[in-house]
Amino acid sequence: MSKPVKDMIASEYTRRFEGVTGAVVVEIRGLDAKATTDVRGKMRAKGIKITVVKNALARRIFKGGALASLEKALKGPSALLTGAESAVIVAREVVKAAEAEKKIVLKGAIFDGEYYDGDAGVKKLGSFPTKEEAQAKVVTLVLSPARNIMGCVKTIQEKLEKGESIAKVA
User: Fold this and answer.
1) Which end of the chain has fewer surrounding CB within 10 Å, N or C?
2) In angstroms, rounded to a whole number, what is the distance separating the alpha carbons of residues 4 and 23?
3) 83: region left, alpha or beta (phi > 0 left; psi from -120 to 50 alpha)
4) pLDDT given for residue 126 in this prediction
5) What pTM value is reported for the model?
6) Which of 29, 38, 131 has the alpha carbon at shortest distance from 87?
7) Beta strand pairing status for 23-27 and 105-111?
8) pLDDT at site 138
9) CB atoms near residue 109 (< 10 Å)
10) What is the Cα–Cα distance from 96 to 94, expressed in whole angstroms?
11) Above pLDDT 90, what percent of the chain?
């Protein structure tokens, strides 16, 4: 490949992956055209972009950046999946796709600067809660005691309104 063509591809990678901090790397070799189209369509519907990359150029562009740790996964045929609201959602969707299409190989992922290696790493990332899910859990945990207290206060109020006495709990 000529230097001008490599420079054009590198420039496109720089533009396409600017600001990206989370991604999943897969190998989609071996899928027939229909299966590839189906996978790409399902991913696109979820806001996920699939980019088949030239490993050497991608490693060069990612060096020193947020995606630098993906260097370990960029061996052999590689496609980078980015987008959605976070890499957690990308990992979830690609794990579902890999279960349906056994030829998809999960090679690695990066999220918030941490590298997740291979099949197990991508599945682990996919099992994490998204930011919104984590916030909802925290709010639920914070509000649970308050709800219990409010239930007790309401019961006491109802008893007092009926003229019943409140016994001391030991």
Assistant:
1) C
2) 27
3) left
4) 92
5) 0.76
6) 131
7) antiparallel
8) 85
9) 30
10) 5
11) 61
Structure tokens belonging to residue 92:
């979830």
CATH superfamily of domain region 3-128: Ribosomal protein L10, N-terminal RNA-binding domain (3.30.70.1730)
Question: Taking a C-beta distance cutoff of 8 angstroms, is the pair 21, 112 a contact?
Answer: yes
What residues contact residue 10 under an 8 Å CB cut-off, 6+ apart? 57, 60, 61
> In this predicted model, what pLDDT tens digit does every residue of 66-87 receive, in sequence order?
999 999 999 999 999 998 888 9
Residue matched to tokens 């509000």: 143
Element (H, E) at 71: none
Nearest to 102 by CA among 25, 29, 23: 29
Q: Would you list the domain boundaries of the chain?
A: 3-128, 129-170
Burial of 92: CB neighbours in 10 Å, binned 0-12, 13-18, 19+: buried
CB of 108 closer than 8 Å to CB of 26: no
pLDDT over 70 at 170, yes or no: no
Cβ(48)–Cβ(90) below 8 Å: yes
Q: What string of DSSP letters covers 26-70?
A: EE-TT--HHHHHHHHHHHHHTTEEEEEE-HHHHHHHHTTSTTGGG
